[in-house]
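Sanity check. The docking grid for adenosine-5'-diphosphate depends on where the pocket ends up, so I'm generating a full predicted complex first rather than guessing from homology. Inputs follow.
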Amino acid sequence: MAERTNINYRYFFQKLLEAMPWPVLVIDRALSIQYYNQQVAPLFGTSQLLWQMNLEQLVPDPAIIQLVRESIQTDSPRYGEHDNEARGPTWKISVTPLEHRPFANSREGELEQGALMEQPLPPYRYFAVAIEDLSELRRLERVRRDFIANVSHELRTPLASIRLLTETLEDAIDTDPDKAQTFVEKIEVEVHYLSGLVADLLELSRIESGQLPMAIEPMEAEQLVWEAMARLLSQAQRHRVKLGTEIHDGRTRVAADSRQIGRVLVNLLHNAIKFTPSGGEVILGTMLLSDGKTQRFFVRDTGVGIPAEDLPRIFERFYKVDRARSKVDYIGGGGRGSGLGLAIARHVVEAHGGRITAESNIEQGSTFAFTLPVAAQTAPTAQ
Ligand code: ADP
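Predicted complex below; grid placement will be based on this.
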């Protein structure tokens, strides 16, 4: 006869439950917790010992408790999905009765059989409650839906203008050539905006999917500053906004993809000029932080500012504080934005291992800042 392998089942099943990616609890018919795996505590944000605790104390949600009670009363499995609040966590819950039969050849089985003789036990004494947290999945679904809605909105508005303008152009083309010319120019503006939007979308998706590798090389912080300044000088003059610099430790060499970081700086400066009324000031600065390993870049303006409730969201794709504010006619032009610039900036900075932040006071101004790692020193070559 083949030799029976001596498996410690208790230990084996305990390890099996710990290996589950989901939180699993085992309760008895009185809802008292008899076992739980390590995934349970983080889900409920507790470090307390949960043994013998009543499930109702841990899960104060009546809908979930009801589901568990139904399973206990009917001795059959129950499944449910549960939303705590409209935007709160979403859980998929399953309650499964665990049939409890004495083992024929184990010490444990002997004990259970002994107990069984004295007092017949119900076949299902324990119930497994498994919880799958779907909150992140739901959040991603919401992001995807919002994204499609936003793209559609951003495309529809200029397309509607183009359609209207072409219809009017058709009428004016023979009768009023000057007017026709203005319509053509307006169409060009819309087409320009649309191409910019599509280019930004493609860029963002390439960065997000890691298809745009950064060409990182050491370069002096002040070089990045001066190049961005040169590109925005005429726009600042047009808007009568004073453009200045505050450069400390400008010779520090940072590890940067100069094209991508240049673009981030230009975007931050462009926004700062756009949202600063004539007579205001925009400063582009850089400095080495005290850790000696991080260089900070910042763009500070004396503009309209960003309300505190919008600040945490401005790096989201398409997020605009107030659609009306960023219209072309605000502070005499500068182009309306797609709401993608800061999302791209965040991705680029994070791909460099840096962090981007924004601070703002309404009617006083905003400061956007990001960090870049200082480039590793190359050892001097021996003479
Ligand atoms: P946009 O292309 O609309 O400028 P961004 O992603 O660059 O998109 O910016 C998102 C929004 O953040 C802007 O629409 C604007 O409402 C706000 N914002 C960005 N920079 C500033 C700033 N310097 N001052 C005030 N508001 C700003």
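Relevant for the grid: Residues 135-175 form the longest helix (41 residues).
Also worth noting: The longest strand covers residues 90-99.
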